[in-house]
């Protein structure tokens, strides 16, 4: 299979009722393509990722691995995948034929990487994970407290 050349990305900023070039470079990219005021364009929009939420996800996993017995011996990534699977958070569900049983639903945790999920989705997943951890593993903590602890969590070297 051949890969298509990736098209250059033009960054836009949301203005009241409009999308405008994010900076002078984006403006020059649009001019170079010959776009003019009033042209109708097609676009796939994706909010740029905030590294804070990427770190937050990792810290949620590390916090759980260090403080919840059910995650002993697991690294942060393993914890996140298990929470995703258990809670059905950021998962794809599909029917799977099980011989002798029939159709069963299976969950497959989706990637939480920068390339796979936009910032808004990742933030929703982080909040859902904190709710799930609070309900299932840490009922003495509110989801907001878990998120705050994860944001300030410093792992041991």
The parts where pLDDT drops under 50 for at least 5 residues are none
User: What is the beta-strand fraction?
Assistant: 15-25%
Order of helical and strand elements: EEHHHEEHH
Overall radius of gyration: 21 Å
Q: How are strands sequenced across the largest beta sheet?
A: 1-2
The proportion of residues forming helix, as a percent range, comes to 40-55%
Mean pLDDT: 85
- Quote the distance from N terminus to C terminus: 43 Å
Question: Helix/strand-derived class?
Answer: alpha+beta
Shape: extended
What would a concise description of this structure say?
Helices cover 42% and strands 15% of the residues. The protein has 157 residues and is of the alpha+beta class. The strands form two sheets. It has a two-stranded antiparallel ribbon with strand order 1-2. It has a two-stranded antiparallel sheet with strand order 3-4.
Describe the structure.
The chain has helices at residues 24-32, 51-67, 76-87, 119-136, 143-152; strands spanning 12-15, 18-21, 91-98, 102-109. The protein has 157 residues and is of the alpha+beta class. β3 (91-98) and β4 (102-109) form a beta hairpin. The protein is extended. The termini are far apart.
